[in-house]
Amino acid sequence: MLESVAGVGSLTGTPWIYAVVALSVLLDVFLPLLPSGVLIVTAATAAAAGTGAATGQVPREVPDILALTLCAATASVLGDLVAYRLAWRGGERLDRAIARSRRLSTAQERLGAALSRGGGALVVIARFAPAGRSVVSFSAGATHRRVREFLPWSALAGLSWAAYSVALGYFGTRWLGAAWLATGVSVAALFAAGAGAAYLMRRTPGRPEAEAS
Predict the structure, then answer these.
(1) How many whole angstroms separate alpha carbon 5 and alpha carbon 41?
(2) What is the pLDDT of residues 86-97, one digit of tens each?
(3) Shortest CA distance to 149 belongs to which of 194, 86, 84?
(4) Sign of torsion over alpha carbons 27, 181, 169, 52
(5) Cα–Cα distance between 98 and 54 in angstroms, integer?
C-alpha cells in the first residue's frame, strides 16, 4: 500500500495522473481485476497530502480534485458505452455465453425489469460492486436496451462512484492526517461499499422482461 501511495504520488505533479486514472477506469469494465478504485483513492490521498489539507495550503502542482472526479466519471461512462456497443453487436455467441451463466442471466432479467419500469438504481448500485459494472453494461447491450434508457443511469453511476472514491481519499487525509493511514482506511471503506453493493444486487428482486425494447 505504501508503495502504491509513493508511485501515484510521484505522478501527482504531472498531467499523467489523469491519463493513468482514465485508462484504468476505462479498461476495468473488461478487466474487473484492475484496481481503478484503489488508484483513484490513492491519487486523491496523494493530492490531499500534497495540498497540505491540514494547513489549508494549496500548491498549484497537485491534481485538481474536481478534475480528478470528472476524469474518472467520464472514463467510466465511455467504458460502459464501449462494452454496451460490443455486447449489442455480439450476436448469438454472446447470447449463448450469457445463457450459460446464471449470474449474467439473472442480472439481465433484473436490469431489463428495472429499466423497463423507468428506474435504473441497479445500474448505480452495480457500479460499486466487484465486476457489477461489467455485468450490467454487457447485459444492457446484449438485450438491446435503448441507449437513452441506459446512458443517463451509467452517467449517474460513474459520477457517484468517482465522487465517492475521490472523497474517501481526500477527506480521509484531511481528517486522519497521515497518508498511509488515510489510504488504508479509505480503501477499506471502498471495499465495504463494494461488498454492500454486491449484497444489494443479490437481494434485488427481478422478473424476466416480456420483450426487449
Answers:
(1) 9
(2) 888 875 666 666
(3) 84
(4) negative
(5) 50
